Amino acid sequence: NAGVMQNPRHLVRRRGQEARLRCSPMKGHSHVYWYRQLPEEGLKFMVYLQKENIIDESGMPKERFSAEFPKEGPSILRIQQVVRGDSAAYFCASSPPGTGVNTIYFGEGSWLTVV
Amino acid sequence: GEDVEQSLFLSVREGDSSVINCTYTDSSSTYLYWYKQEPGAGLQLLTYIFSNMDMKQDQRLTVLLNKKDKHLSLRIADTQTGDSAIYFCAERNQAGTALIFGKGTTLSVSS
Questions:
Q1: pLDDT per residue as tens digits for the range A5-56
Q2: How far apart are CA B64 and CA A67, in angstroms?
């Protein structure tokens, strides 16, 4: 049973470009979470999604950031018009239905560098 | 709102015990967690404790919870060089939809 898969692991974008980060949850998991880790900071919650639904997006920046978890395929975190301050590690996590955050499993992260 | 504080660094010698401390603000937190992050990797859940418990032990790990002081600690017995990592304390938010993490404590183990 493969773990949470994130790709790309490393992404370099120029300022103003778009970044797309993908996350495939563990098999049988229908809940996905995105967290951001800025340099020398802890993880900050961004968004919690179930299939085709955004449940809690209280941590998402109001502009340029969006997330989806379609019925088929991976969850996507999209950052438009990236700026240097978006450089961070973005972690996806997933959990099975009915267990919530007590049983979330993290992926290995996608490191975004904006130049 | 919820907030979690940790000391940033801890240095110990191999074979000693390590104690990593954490304070949290939300007295209604039902679950508190310890995660480990090795360089360039994701977070690995080490253990969690329910708020009606004072202590939980799992092999070399002991978690102590002082609800009155909102203080959580993680003790690692017989610390090994492989325990060198960043350790994050976390609490569940009130909605139960997210984990609130501290900034992490970097544990350095010297031989």
A1: 999 999 999 999 999 999 999 998 999 999 999 887 789 999 999 999 999 9
A2: 37
Cβ-defined contact of B31 to A91 (cutoff 8 Å): no
Residues contacting B83, CB < 8 A, separation 6+: B18, B76, B107, B109
Per CB-CB distance under 8 Å, the chain A contacts of B96 are 100-101
Let me know: does A110 contact A6? Beta carbons within 8 Å: yes
Q: Taking CB atoms and an 8 Å limit, are A48 and B97 in contact across chains?
A: yes
Q: A48 forms bridges with which residues in the sheet?
A: A33, A56
**Overall average pLDDT of the B52-69 stretch:** 93
Query: Which residues of chain B are within 8 Å of residue A55 when distances are taken between CB atoms?
Result: 97
